[in-house]
Amino acid sequence: MLLNMKELLAVANEHNFAVPAFNIGTGQILNGVMDKCEELKAPVILAIHPLEHDFQGDSFLKMCIDRANKSPIPVCIHLDHSEWGPIVRAIRAGFTSVMIDASSLPFEENVAITKKVCELAHPLGVSVEGELGTIGTTDGDTEGGTAEIIYTKPEDAVRFVEETGCDTLAIAIGTAHGIYPAGMKPELKQDLLSEIKSKVSVPLVLHGGSGNKDSEIAEAVKRGINKINISSDIKDAFYQELRKTLQDPKIREPFELYPASVKAMQDVVEHKIKLFNDDDKVQYYSLNEML
Do you know which Gene3D superfamilies this protein is assigned to (predicted)? Predict the structure, then answer.
């Protein structure tokens, strides 16, 4: 069942779990993620970065929509970190949720562009994620971020949500995009998360938690994170396994190349779903009422 993120995360917010947003850059990753989520009865967000959208094209989105509409689980199709032009394209193509990332701009400019996106998207039933504060970045990551993390201020979060009308808010509490290099030891500011959660009513989003301890992520979910972005972890598992398969020069058929990679990725998908307390949460969605 295809939903927007406001509908999907309202349930997660009420029942205190987090829905994973898995970045799906290929059909193999899409089907592998969906198969595992359906097996675990876990709501899911299919996240597509603008560069992935460019690479796959609008027809790939039709495949995602078809898969979501035929699925027994709640599914949102979300445009990840983006700006105005790709957002307009994504809405026309059929995305049910978009993220405007103006977090590097001054506060008032961030508010203005996020509000503008909400005014475009909301009448069309498309939800909007904004971001306040900055996520760190690592070498080789394509999702953006800054060398220095600027933590989200609770009082700014309140103003931002009120003035923009955004449906979800990505906050900065100490994470970075990508696979963390050796020696980098991230630590989440859990008390800051709790303070923001106590003041802001919309679901909160965590970006860039690949290198954080499972115990930290689980604690963040308990404290009110309702969406967690996962990209590097599943892609690393997928392509590391594919490199092993490609050592055999006789294998050339896609149905021979990819099964081991999909399985390796699905092991990570299952781990994240259970870590986020997302498994078996279809029970809380009255899907017939949402039709």
Answer: Aldolase class I
pLDDT at 143 exceeding the cut of 50? no
Pair 43, 75: CB distance under 8 Å: yes
The answer on pLDDT for 184 being more than 60 is no
Rounded to an integer, what distance in angstroms lies between the CA atom of residue 73 and that of residue 223? 25
Amino acid at 267: D
- Residues 228-265 have pLDDT tens digits of 999 999 999 999 999 999 999 999 999 999 999 999 99
Dist. CA 91–CA 68, nearest whole Å: 16
φ, ψ of residue 35 to 5 degrees: the values are -60, -45
With a CB cutoff of 8 Å and minimum separation 6, the contacts of 45 are: 5, 8, 19, 20, 21, 22, 75, 76, 77, 78, 97, 227
Beta-carbon contacts of residue 39 (< 8 Å; ≥ 6 apart): none
Q: Quick one: pLDDT at residue 175?
A: 82
pLDDT-based confidence at residue 139 (cuts at 50, 70, 90)? very low
The mean per-residue pLDDT over the stretch 206-219 comes to: 85
Residue 186 has pLDDT above 60, yes or no: yes
